[in-house]
Amino acid sequence: MxxxxxxxxxxxxxxxxxINGMRSIVFSDxxxxxxxxxxxxxxxxxxxxxxxxxxxxxxxxxxxxxxxGIFPIFRRYGFRTPIIAHSGxxxxxxxxxxxxxKGISKDKAxxxxxxxxxxxxxxxxxxxxxxxxxxxxxxxxxxxxEVRIVEAEAEEGSVDSVTSDSISxxxxxxxxxxxDSIELxxxxxxxxxxxxxxxxxxxxxxxxxxxxxxxxxxxxxxxGLALEDAVAFGDNYNDEEMLHAVGHGFLMGNAPQPLRERVxxxxxxxxxxxxxxxxxxxxxx
Length: 285
Known about the structure:
By secondary structure, the protein is α/β, with parallel strands linked by helices. The chain contains ten helices and 16 strands. Helix content is 32%, strand content 23%. Strands 7-6-5-4-3-14-15-16 form an eight-stranded mixed β-sheet. Strands 10-9-8-11-13-12 form a six-stranded mixed β-sheet, with helices on one face. It has a two-stranded antiparallel ribbon with strand order 1-2.
C-alpha cells in the first residue's frame, strides 16, 4: 500500500455527480500537460483540480511514468487519485490497489533488448516492472536527466533482475534525430507489441493492446461512466488515441504541429493553464 498524501483534493470511490447534465470524469497526462515547463502545477490549474474534487468528479492521472515517478507529485500537492501508469499497462486505484496490469513476458523483453543491442541502436533503455525501474548504466547522462525530471531512482540491472512475472514497459531514450527510424525498425521487428513515440526522443514498448485509451475505458467502467462523457488532456503522440476515444479530448497548445492537425479540440499550452481554462469552459471547474 502506498501513502499518497492528504485525501481532501480529489474524489474517490464512486462519488461521481452530474455536472450540467453530464456525469463526468477527467483524465490528464502529466509531462507537458498537467505540469508546466518547470515540472510544477500552477496555482490556477491546481485550484481547478480541487474544484473537480468538490464537485465529485474523478480526476485520473494518466502517464508514461511509473508510479514512483508520480508519487512526488502526489506528495507535493496532496493528491489522492487513481493512476494509469506506463501509458496504460498498470492501473492503481486511490488506495494503492492494482486494478489492472498487462505486461510483456520476460522472454519477449529479452528479445527486444537483444535486438536493440545487436542493431547498435543509439538509445538508453529502461526496464519497468510495476514500480521497479532498472537500467544498464545509472551514470548515462540520459538516465540521469530522466531521474532528475521524475524525482525517482533507477537501479542498475536487467530483465533477470525483475522478480515479478512480467515487464510493464521498456522505455527508450533516443537521439531525437534517430527516434522515428528506431520506432519504425522496432515496429517492423515486433508487430505483436504496442510501440509508440511519446516525445521527439522517447519510445515506449508495451504489451499488445496497451494504450492510454484502453486504460481510460477500463477506468470509466470502474466508475460506471461512459467514455463519451469523459474529458481528457494530453500533449503528445501517445495521448492521441485517448483524446479521440473520449467525448472531450483536448490537445495542449504546446503539442507537436502534426497532432494539432489531427485533434479537433485544443487547449492553451501547459505554461498558460490550458487545463484550467478548458475545465471552466466545460463548466466543470
